[in-house]
Amino acid sequence: MKNDKPIRKKAAAIAYDHIGVPKVVAKGDGLVAQKIIEFAREKGIPVQSNETLVEALMQVELSAEIPPELYQAVAEVLAFIYRMDKKKSKSFHI
């Protein structure tokens, strides 16, 4: 049986200033999710696809710190971003 229900993409953005706990700074679905992803790509911010984490972050209030049960998952995302930044900086060295 075919499912005619449209798939609504979701996105959440976190910010971390190396002090304290990362915070949810944007979240949404559909067009809002698309705009969050487009903005990140335009600004060179790494985008990682993790549906389980996005679902969890959608439950966190905007500007709120992520809860302790998400620390490990968010730490993995931050490690991914760190690796991406490191690769990017190496590619610019002559």
Describe the protein's architecture and organization.
The protein has one domain: name from scop, CATH 3.40.1690. The mean pLDDT is 86. The protein is built from 3 helices and 2 strands. It has a two-stranded antiparallel sheet with strand order 1-2. The longest helix is centred in the C-terminal third of the chain and has 21 residues. A hairpin with a 7-residue loop joins strand 1 and strand 2. With 94 residues, the protein is α+β, with helices and mostly antiparallel strands.
What structural class do helix, strand and pairing data support?
Answer: alpha+beta
Order of helices and strands: EEHHH
The CATH architecture term is 3-Layer(aba) Sandwich
Q: What would CATH call the homologous superfamily? A: secretion proteins EscU
The percent range for helix content is 40-55%
Keywords for this entry:
14% strand, 44% helix, 94 residues, alpha+beta, single chain, name from scop, 3 helices
What's a concise summary of this model?
This protein is α+β, with helices and mostly antiparallel strands and 94 residues long. The protein contains three helices and two strands; from the N terminus they run E-E-H-H-H. The chain has one domain: secretion proteins EscU (name from scop).
